[in-house]
Amino acid sequence: MLLHIPGLFSREEVQRIREALLQTDWADGKITAGYQSAKAKHNLQLPEGHPLAKEIGAAMIDRLWQNPLFMSAALPHKVFPPLVNCYTGGGSFDFHIDNAVRQPKGSPERVRTDLSATLFFSNPEDYDGGELVIQDTYGVQQIKFPAGDMVLYPGTSLHKVNAVTRGARFASFFWTQSLVREDSQRTLLFEMDTAIQQLTRDVPDHPALIQLTGTYHNLLRRWVEV
Ligand code: NI
Protein backbone atom coordinates (compact mmCIF):
# COMPACT_ATOMS: atom_id res chain seq x y z
CA MET A 1 0.00 0.00 0.00
CA LEU A 2 1.18 3.46 -0.91
CA LEU A 3 -0.21 6.23 1.30
CA HIS A 4 -0.16 10.03 1.05
CA ILE A 5 -0.02 11.69 4.48
CA PRO A 6 -0.63 15.43 4.00
CA GLY A 7 0.38 18.39 6.16
CA LEU A 8 2.81 16.94 8.71
CA PHE A 9 4.50 20.35 8.73
CA SER A 10 2.93 23.74 7.88
CA ARG A 11 4.20 25.98 5.06
CA GLU A 12 5.95 28.23 7.61
CA GLU A 13 7.63 25.26 9.27
CA VAL A 14 8.99 23.80 6.03
CA GLN A 15 10.19 27.28 5.04
CA ARG A 16 12.22 27.50 8.29
CA ILE A 17 13.58 23.97 7.72
CA ARG A 18 14.66 24.87 4.16
CA GLU A 19 16.39 28.05 5.36
CA ALA A 20 18.36 26.05 7.94
CA LEU A 21 19.25 23.39 5.34
CA LEU A 22 20.55 26.03 2.90
CA GLN A 23 23.07 27.19 5.50
CA THR A 24 24.49 23.86 6.56
CA ASP A 25 27.32 21.62 5.34
CA TRP A 26 26.41 18.56 3.30
CA ALA A 27 28.16 15.24 2.67
CA ASP A 28 28.05 12.80 -0.25
CA GLY A 29 24.91 10.65 -0.11
CA LYS A 30 26.94 7.47 -0.64
CA ILE A 31 27.76 7.47 3.12
CA THR A 32 24.62 5.46 3.97
CA ALA A 33 24.30 3.51 0.73
CA GLY A 34 25.12 -0.17 0.45
CA TYR A 35 27.87 -1.36 -1.92
CA GLN A 36 25.53 -1.79 -4.90
CA SER A 37 23.31 1.23 -4.38
CA ALA A 38 26.34 3.53 -3.92
CA LYS A 39 26.89 3.19 -7.66
CA ALA A 40 23.34 4.40 -8.32
CA LYS A 41 23.19 7.21 -5.77
CA HIS A 42 24.12 10.80 -6.66
CA ASN A 43 22.93 13.26 -4.05
CA LEU A 44 23.88 15.11 -0.88
CA GLN A 45 23.02 14.07 2.63
CA LEU A 46 23.46 15.32 6.19
CA PRO A 47 25.78 12.89 8.03
CA GLU A 48 24.04 10.57 10.53
CA GLY A 49 23.97 12.31 13.90
CA HIS A 50 24.31 15.80 12.37
CA PRO A 51 22.67 18.21 14.90
CA LEU A 52 20.25 19.63 12.32
CA ALA A 53 19.25 16.16 11.09
CA LYS A 54 18.66 15.13 14.72
CA GLU A 55 16.54 18.20 15.39
CA ILE A 56 14.43 17.77 12.25
CA GLY A 57 14.16 14.01 12.86
CA ALA A 58 12.94 14.47 16.44
CA ALA A 59 10.29 16.97 15.29
CA MET A 60 9.15 14.53 12.58
CA ILE A 61 8.85 11.57 14.95
CA ASP A 62 6.89 13.77 17.34
CA ARG A 63 4.40 14.68 14.58
CA LEU A 64 4.17 11.14 13.25
CA TRP A 65 3.34 9.66 16.65
CA GLN A 66 0.40 12.08 16.87
CA ASN A 67 -0.77 11.38 13.32
CA PRO A 68 -3.70 8.91 13.25
CA LEU A 69 -3.14 8.06 9.57
CA PHE A 70 0.53 7.12 10.11
CA MET A 71 -0.21 5.19 13.32
CA SER A 72 -3.03 3.22 11.70
CA ALA A 73 -1.19 2.47 8.44
CA ALA A 74 2.33 1.82 9.76
CA LEU A 75 1.58 0.25 13.17
CA PRO A 76 5.10 1.36 14.08
CA HIS A 77 7.32 -0.66 16.37
CA LYS A 78 10.53 1.31 15.88
CA VAL A 79 11.90 3.89 13.49
CA PHE A 80 15.36 4.43 12.03
CA PRO A 81 16.26 8.07 12.82
CA PRO A 82 15.24 10.21 9.81
CA LEU A 83 17.99 11.24 7.38
CA VAL A 84 17.93 14.45 5.36
CA ASN A 85 18.99 14.72 1.74
CA CYS A 86 19.24 17.15 -1.14
CA TYR A 87 19.09 16.50 -4.88
CA THR A 88 20.36 19.30 -7.10
CA GLY A 89 22.45 19.88 -10.25
CA GLY A 90 21.29 16.72 -12.04
CA GLY A 91 21.47 14.54 -8.90
CA SER A 92 19.48 11.30 -9.02
CA PHE A 93 19.21 7.84 -7.47
CA ASP A 94 18.61 4.94 -9.89
CA PHE A 95 16.27 2.00 -9.24
CA HIS A 96 17.11 0.04 -6.10
CA ILE A 97 15.59 -1.76 -3.13
CA ASP A 98 16.63 -0.50 0.30
CA ASN A 99 18.66 -2.72 2.64
CA ALA A 100 16.43 -5.01 4.70
CA VAL A 101 18.02 -4.17 8.04
CA ARG A 102 19.48 -0.89 9.29
CA GLN A 103 21.51 -0.15 12.35
CA PRO A 104 21.67 3.47 13.50
CA LYS A 105 25.25 4.65 14.13
CA GLY A 106 26.27 4.04 17.73
CA SER A 107 23.13 2.06 18.55
CA PRO A 108 22.95 -1.67 19.30
CA GLU A 109 19.39 -1.78 18.01
CA ARG A 110 18.57 -2.86 14.47
CA VAL A 111 15.53 -1.84 12.44
CA ARG A 112 13.88 -4.08 9.83
CA THR A 113 12.82 -1.76 7.00
CA ASP A 114 9.17 -2.81 6.55
CA LEU A 115 8.12 0.67 5.44
CA SER A 116 9.93 3.50 3.69
CA ALA A 117 8.84 7.12 3.94
CA THR A 118 9.81 10.39 2.27
CA LEU A 119 8.77 13.75 3.68
CA PHE A 120 9.09 16.59 1.17
CA PHE A 121 10.60 19.91 2.31
CA SER A 122 10.61 21.58 -1.14
CA ASN A 123 7.55 22.62 -3.11
CA PRO A 124 7.07 20.92 -6.52
CA GLU A 125 7.28 24.27 -8.35
CA ASP A 126 10.74 24.95 -6.88
CA TYR A 127 12.48 22.18 -8.85
CA ASP A 128 12.18 20.21 -12.09
CA GLY A 129 12.41 16.41 -12.04
CA GLY A 130 13.04 14.78 -8.66
CA GLU A 131 9.95 12.56 -8.78
CA LEU A 132 10.09 9.57 -6.44
CA VAL A 133 9.18 6.70 -8.77
CA ILE A 134 7.83 3.65 -6.97
CA GLN A 135 6.97 0.30 -8.53
CA ASP A 136 4.26 -1.24 -6.41
CA THR A 137 1.63 -3.93 -6.91
CA TYR A 138 -0.57 -1.44 -8.80
CA GLY A 139 2.13 -0.36 -11.25
CA VAL A 140 4.47 2.62 -11.35
CA GLN A 141 3.64 5.67 -9.24
CA GLN A 142 5.35 9.06 -9.66
CA ILE A 143 5.37 10.96 -6.40
CA LYS A 144 6.01 14.69 -6.05
CA PHE A 145 4.06 16.06 -3.11
CA PRO A 146 3.77 19.58 -1.65
CA ALA A 147 6.29 20.57 1.04
CA GLY A 148 5.19 19.21 4.42
CA ASP A 149 3.54 16.10 2.94
CA MET A 150 4.83 12.54 3.25
CA VAL A 151 4.58 9.31 1.27
CA LEU A 152 4.63 5.95 3.01
CA TYR A 153 5.29 2.79 0.95
CA PRO A 154 6.40 -0.83 1.44
CA GLY A 155 10.13 -1.29 1.96
CA THR A 156 9.98 -4.16 -0.51
CA SER A 157 9.31 -1.79 -3.44
CA LEU A 158 11.74 -1.03 -6.22
CA HIS A 159 12.12 2.78 -6.37
CA LYS A 160 14.24 5.64 -7.73
CA VAL A 161 14.51 9.43 -7.68
CA ASN A 162 14.57 11.14 -11.08
CA ALA A 163 17.34 13.66 -11.80
CA VAL A 164 16.70 17.17 -10.50
CA THR A 165 17.43 19.41 -13.47
CA ARG A 166 16.47 22.79 -11.92
CA GLY A 167 16.47 24.03 -8.32
CA ALA A 168 16.92 21.81 -5.27
CA ARG A 169 14.82 19.07 -3.74
CA PHE A 170 15.17 18.83 0.04
CA ALA A 171 13.54 15.88 1.78
CA SER A 172 13.80 13.56 4.72
CA PHE A 173 13.54 9.80 4.51
CA PHE A 174 13.37 7.08 7.10
CA TRP A 175 12.38 3.46 7.68
CA THR A 176 9.88 1.95 10.07
CA GLN A 177 9.81 -1.52 11.52
CA SER A 178 6.15 -2.34 11.89
CA LEU A 179 4.44 -4.46 14.52
CA VAL A 180 3.03 -6.31 11.49
CA ARG A 181 5.70 -7.40 9.01
CA GLU A 182 3.53 -8.22 5.96
CA ASP A 183 2.25 -5.34 3.85
CA SER A 184 -0.92 -7.25 2.88
CA GLN A 185 -1.84 -7.80 6.54
CA ARG A 186 -1.11 -4.18 7.46
CA THR A 187 -3.29 -3.07 4.53
CA LEU A 188 -6.23 -5.17 5.73
CA LEU A 189 -5.91 -3.81 9.26
CA PHE A 190 -5.63 -0.23 7.97
CA GLU A 191 -8.76 -0.59 5.82
CA MET A 192 -10.68 -2.15 8.70
CA ASP A 193 -9.55 0.55 11.14
CA THR A 194 -10.51 3.28 8.65
CA ALA A 195 -14.01 1.76 8.31
CA ILE A 196 -14.38 1.47 12.11
CA GLN A 197 -13.34 5.12 12.55
CA GLN A 198 -15.93 6.20 9.98
CA LEU A 199 -18.69 4.17 11.63
CA THR A 200 -17.68 5.60 15.01
CA ARG A 201 -18.33 9.08 13.58
CA ASP A 202 -21.53 8.21 11.69
CA VAL A 203 -23.29 5.70 13.96
CA PRO A 204 -21.44 5.95 17.28
CA ASP A 205 -23.99 3.91 19.26
CA HIS A 206 -24.30 0.94 16.93
CA PRO A 207 -23.70 -2.24 18.96
CA ALA A 208 -21.85 -3.98 16.08
CA LEU A 209 -19.01 -1.48 16.55
CA ILE A 210 -17.91 -3.30 19.69
CA GLN A 211 -17.74 -6.59 17.82
CA LEU A 212 -15.92 -5.07 14.85
CA THR A 213 -13.37 -3.32 17.08
CA GLY A 214 -12.85 -6.60 18.91
CA THR A 215 -12.27 -8.42 15.63
CA TYR A 216 -9.70 -5.77 14.63
CA HIS A 217 -7.77 -6.36 17.84
CA ASN A 218 -8.02 -10.11 17.56
CA LEU A 219 -6.58 -9.98 14.03
CA LEU A 220 -3.84 -7.63 15.21
CA ARG A 221 -3.06 -9.97 18.12
CA ARG A 222 -2.71 -12.85 15.65
CA TRP A 223 -0.23 -10.98 13.44
CA VAL A 224 1.64 -8.70 15.82
CA GLU A 225 5.36 -9.19 16.63
CA VAL A 226 6.73 -7.31 19.62
NI1 NI B 1 15.86 3.95 -1.39
Automatic annotation (TrEMBL):
Keyword Transferase assigned to the entry: answer is no
Database matches in InterPro entries: Oxoglu/Fe-dep_dioxygenase_dom, PKHD_C, PKHD_hydroxylase, Pro_4_hyd_alph, Pro_4_hyd_alph_FE2OG_OXY
Please verify whether the record's keywords include Metal-binding. yes
Highest taxon in the source lineage: Bacteria
Please provide the Gene Ontology terms (biological process) for this protein.
Answer: DNA damage response; intracellular iron ion homeostasis
Where on this chain does Fe cation bind? H96, D98, H159
Q: Relay the cofactor remark from the entry.
A: Binds 1 Fe(2+) ion per subunit.
Cofactor(s) the protein requires to work: L-ascorbate; Fe(2+)
Instruction: Report keywords, A-Z.
Output: Dioxygenase, Iron, Metal-binding, Oxidoreductase, Vitamin C
The residue ranges of the Fe2OG dioxygenase domain are: 78-178
State where 2-oxoglutarate binds: R169
A GO molecular-function annotation: L-ascorbic acid binding
Give the matching SMART domains. P4Hc
What NCBIfam families does this protein map onto?
PRK05467.1-3, PRK05467.1-4
Q: State the protein's name.
A: Fe(II)-dependent oxygenase
Top-down, what is the taxonomic lineage of the species of origin?
Bacteria, Pseudomonadati, Pseudomonadota, Gammaproteobacteria, Pseudomonadales
